[in-house]
Amino acid sequence: MNVGPGVRRRRRALELTLAEVARRAGVSVPFLSQVENGRSRPSMSSLQRIADALDTTAVEILAAAQEPRPVDVVRAADGAATADGTRPLVRGPQRLHALEFTGDHDWDREYRHRGDELLYVADGAAEVEADGVRYRLERGDTLYCAAELPHRWRPLEPGTRVLVVGTTAP
């Protein structure tokens, strides 16, 4: 999936230079240029840093890279996970975003964005912090939070699988 055009559109809409976005994201200017030109695919963590620098989310950048579909089925074989264990469950620029995370997750990064978010622990256990309060979730547990609140999560066991479903405000 080529996220480059969406990154470039967002950067230009904010009237930012490549150098400014690269500095904010902690990536090199040549790397960011390659991303924008479709010659390099950033890891999910790099994409999240770029999204932060552009005051948006990685999910919104990924969604913008796809065509809208009024009905879409994502088969397990079609939605292969990225190298860092993230698998999109909804494609296209929708107001609902769903991702499946398997493996490690960046606890150091807090998320805040418009909309709502639901976390469901499909396997294993996870620790979630929402608005400064920590919760331990086991297999089958869910946590909802207004996404404007600072929130983050991490797996507590190997093989933990977490589904994150979020909405964005219109």
Notes on the protein architecture:
This protein has 170 residues and is of the alpha+beta class. It folds into two domains: 61 residues, 434 Repressor (Amino-terminal Domain) (Orthogonal Bundle); 82 residues, Sandwich (Jelly Rolls), CATH 2.60.120. Helices cover 25% and strands 28% of the residues. It is built from five helices and eight strands. The strands form two sheets. A five-stranded antiparallel sheet has the order 1-2-8-3-6, covered by helices on one side. A three-stranded antiparallel sheet has the order 5-4-7, with no helix packed on it. Helix 2 crosses helix 3 and helix 2 crosses helix 4. The chain is globular. Pfam families: Cupin_2 (PF07883), HTH_3 (PF01381).
Set out the fold topology.
Blueprint: H1 4-13, H2 18-25, H3 29-36, H4 44-53, H5 58-64, E1 86-88, E2 96-102, E3 116-123, E4 125-130, E5 133-138, E6 142-146, E7 151-155, E8 161-167
Antiparallel strand pairs: 1-2, 2-8, 3-6, 3-8, 4-5, 4-7
Helix pairs in contact: 2-3, 2-4
List the main descriptive attributes of the protein structure presented here:
five-stranded antiparallel sheet; 434 Repressor (Amino-terminal Domain); Jelly Rolls; alpha+beta; globular; 5 helices; 170 residues; 8 strands
